[in-house]
Amino acid sequence: MRNENVAPVDTMGCESLADRTATPRDQRFQTLVALMLSSQTKDTVTSVAIKGMQDNMPGGFNLESVLALDPPALNAFISKVGFHNLKTKYIKQSAEILRDKWNSDIPDTIQGLTSLPGVGPKMAYLCMSAAWGKDEGIGVDVHVHRITNLWGWHKTKQPEETRAALQSWLPQDRWHDINNLLVGFGQTICLPVGRKCGDCKLADRNLCPSAVVAKTVKVKREAASLKVEGAEDESLMYRRIGVADKLEVKIEDVDTAVPDIEDLGRGPGKRPSRTRK
């Protein structure tokens, strides 16, 4: 199903953004920066920012060039990504740490990566896999956390709980793939809002306990009468209308939506209103 639906992560995900003509060291640095930019930002926006840095940064996109840039100039390169002011600060600070403590390369340990400003466990595990080829843990973002809970694989409240739960049983040779598979699935079918359960093969095969699919239900309706104003004949004053023993309606026309896990705890009015035809 993922192969049939190309997702943004497949062509613009952080793992694929580094310039393959650059040195391995510079590719690792570009991957780290791409992951730092990706937080709260769509892949399409992150990829454009990285491409702009690769094409236009004086001296090329590498650690030395970032160190040489003034913060406003770096901020201009990433101005379209979410929280770009804070990320400018984090990238500049991280570049200095890499120069001073890591021989101008990125750390090759989870502890080292998470010591960098703005780099959490999710980024660190993804970076270890993409930059160093080491699958030491599962990168759990909002899609992985949300979808695996929807599937009933576990009941977790935080991404780190989800990572521990998945790593307790999922074979390690699957750790690299699961993030990409579920992120793409969340971008194309199992959307955070408005899941396309009708297009999902898991729903067709009853593999998703949270699926909401179109069904036909039977609704009983009582006979109704309508008073006809102005009728002179008393026998015509009332006319039977809309009498039906059974009426077929689509379940999607009934407002029975169950909130996604990301919406739990939010007040009313946060979800977009349903448009009725």
From TrEMBL:
Catalysis: reaction(s): 2'-deoxyribonucleotide-(2'-deoxyribose 5'-phosphate)-2'-deoxyribonucleotide-DNA = a 3'-end 2'-deoxyribonucleotide-(2,3-dehydro-2,3-deoxyribose 5'-phosphate)-DNA + a 5'-end 5'-phospho-2'-deoxyribonucleoside-DNA + H(+)
EC number: 3.2.2.-, 4.2.99.18
Residue ranges of every copy of the HhH-GPD domain listed in the record: 37-188
Name of a matching Pfam family: HHH
Entry's Gene Ontology cellular component terms: mitochondrion; nucleus
Keywords: 4Fe-4S, DNA damage, DNA repair, Glycosidase, Hydrolase, Iron, Iron-sulfur, Lyase, Metal-binding, Mitochondrion, Nucleus, Transit peptide
Compartments where found: Nucleus; Mitochondrion
Family: Belongs to the Nth/MutY family.
Function: Bifunctional DNA N-glycosylase with associated apurinic/apyrimidinic (AP) lyase function that catalyzes the first step in base excision repair (BER), the primary repair pathway for the repair of oxidative DNA damage. The DNA N-glycosylase activity releases the damaged DNA base from DNA by cleaving the N-glycosidic bond, leaving an AP site. The AP lyase activity cleaves the phosphodiester bond 3' to the AP site by a beta-elimination. Primarily recognizes and repairs oxidative base damage of pyrimidines.
Name of the protein in its database record: Endonuclease III homolog
